[in-house]
């Protein structure tokens, strides 16, 4: 018997819970205590291993100070609520929810100088463009 794989929607909801929890600086333990569950259960929700019930989703959204629909993929929302962006938007959401994306966003927003932020964006864009044209025999800087 094969183990059940988490549903993509359950995984998305879990990653959004994690993202919003981290954005407000709340630990899994603190969220679990407010929900009256164990932190292991919060871990399972965030990984998408366990589904989050409707009343629990409402409780989590309330604790995190967000609307319930902030936890769901845009593709599930009605046409008047769906954000534009398609697959690129989903890729950006996935990156922002990742450990690296979250850390990068958090550090970037702490940079006070708009000029420095613009230069960093230009640098990253240049690196991304260089990566598209790089061949296997081109040396890379590490």
TrEMBL record:
Pfam families: HTH_3 (PF01381)
Residues of the HTH cro/C1-type domain: 17-71
InterPro entries documented for this protein: Cro/C1-type_HTH (IPR001387), Lambda_DNA-bd_dom_sf (IPR010982)
GO molecular function, one term: DNA binding
SUPFAM superfamilies linked to this entry: lambda repressor-like DNA-binding domains
SMART domains: HTH_XRE
Descriptive protein name: Helix-turn-helix transcriptional regulator
Species: Rhizobium glycinendophyticum
């Amino acid at each position: 018997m094969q183990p059940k794989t988490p549903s993509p929607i359950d995984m998305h909801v879990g990653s959004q819970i994690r993202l919003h929890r981290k954005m407000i600086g709340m630990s899994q333990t603190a969220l679990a205590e407010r929900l009256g569950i164990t932190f292991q259960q919060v871990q399972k929700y965030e990984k998408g291993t366990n589904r989050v019930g409707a009343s629990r989703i409402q409780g989590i959204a309330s604790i995190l100070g967000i609307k319930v629909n902030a936890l769901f993929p845009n593709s599930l929302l009605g046409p008047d609520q769906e954000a534009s962006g398609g697959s690129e938007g989903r890729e950006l959401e996935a990156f922002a929810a990742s450990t690296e994306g979250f850390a990068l966003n958090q550090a970037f927003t702490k940079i006070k100088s708009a000029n420095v932020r613009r230069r960093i964006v230009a640098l990253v864009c240049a690196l991304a463009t260089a990566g598209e044209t790089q061949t296997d025999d081109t040396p890379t800087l590490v």
